[in-house]
Amino acid sequence: MRTVYNFASGPAMLPRAVMEQAQAEFLDWRGTGMSVMEISHRGREFQSIVDQSIADLRALLGVGPDYDVLFVQGGATGQFSMVPLNLCPGGEPAAYVHTGHWSGKAMENGARHCEVRVAASSAATNFSTIPPRESWQVDPGAAYLFYTANETIGGVEFHDMPAGSGPPLVSDMTSNFLSRPVDVSRFGIIFAGAQKNFGPAGLVVVIIRKDLIGRARSTVPLLYDYASYSGHNSLLNTPATFSWYVAALSFAWIRRQGGVEVMEENARRRSGRLYRAIDAGDFYSNSVPAQFRSRMNVPFTLKDPALDKEFLQEARAAGLEALAGHRTVGGMRASLYNGMPDAGVDALVDFMGDFARRRG
Ligand SMILES: Cc1ncc(COP(=O)(O)O)c(C=O)c1O
Predict the structure, then answer these.
(1) pLDDT digits (tens, 9 = 90+) for 277-299
(2) CATH, domain range 259-359
(3) Ligand 1 geometric centre to CA of 63 (Å)
(4) Numbered ranges of CATH 3.90.1150.10 in the chain
(5) Distance, CA 102 to ligand 1 centroid (Å)?
(6) CATH code of the domain made up of 17-257
(7) Whole-prediction pTM value?
(8) Which of 43, 216, 248, 252 could form a disulfide with 225 if both were Cys (CB 3.0 to 4.6 A apart)?
């Protein structure tokens, strides 16, 4: 098999060991003679996956007993509605920090169920920065304060959690979940779609403080009420069983690697290497100031955009896939989630150096 490094922003590359284990167990899950995707979600076998995955995730992030870990469907986009549907039963105000595309989507979806109040925005810098915490105007009556921990398209990441007290903090960690330690006790809700850092699409993990469960109005569909999941061990209806199983393999793999601290070291080392290559000359550039740069998604442009197509074609031929930037911004983007090995970044940096020498 040809070695390919896949820099897609999600669905994205998973750790090879996880893929190999899924492959080895594909037809016969631990001696049952059945594939994990063929067994009942209500059976003893699948329950062991549910229990182990929750225990591993709790251990990885130090999730305390006052939090529930839920597995839901509907993508991270579903959470943009579930959060206000559950926390703003009467359409109350909610505060949002607008730092780019995904926080914008959260606001757009949220506005259908709550009164969106923008606490801060980095629109003036074309969403290449994070407004300083002191400048945020958080309505003290807001039901929650929402921010996007990593803007996948803009390549802007919060490197510290926002300080201060106030409304419960809600964070979309879809594109940097499990890539660093997080003090869960300071959050009301953390959610993350699986398809970047820990699994296939079709699954979202929600870590929610228990006192925030049970606030939805009775008109909210049961499927969108956190209480339905909390009360049924996330088995309200048939979950995305195969995605959940692969997520469970990923959690176990991260634990074997040494936990989220090791994922953080990896992310820092890999992204640092790529940013150094971008900054080394004037052929490539990234417009995000160093303190806001994402370790997960590295957007960059070529000095001469007329070379973009050639760059992408040659990269593909060299086994470096999915480097095109998001359709709304163009340019390039390399996503470096937990599944990306150092060798992938090395290969990309070597290719970029070679391309710049030939075409610069
Ligand atoms: C930060 C962030 N939030 C939300 C989403 C939307 O995720 P989904 O497609 O699972 O709804 C994405 C997808 O890329 C994302 O990067």
Answers:
(1) 999 999 999 999 999 999 999 99
(2) 3.90.1150.10
(3) 23
(4) 259-359
(5) 7
(6) 3.40.640.10
(7) 0.98
(8) 216
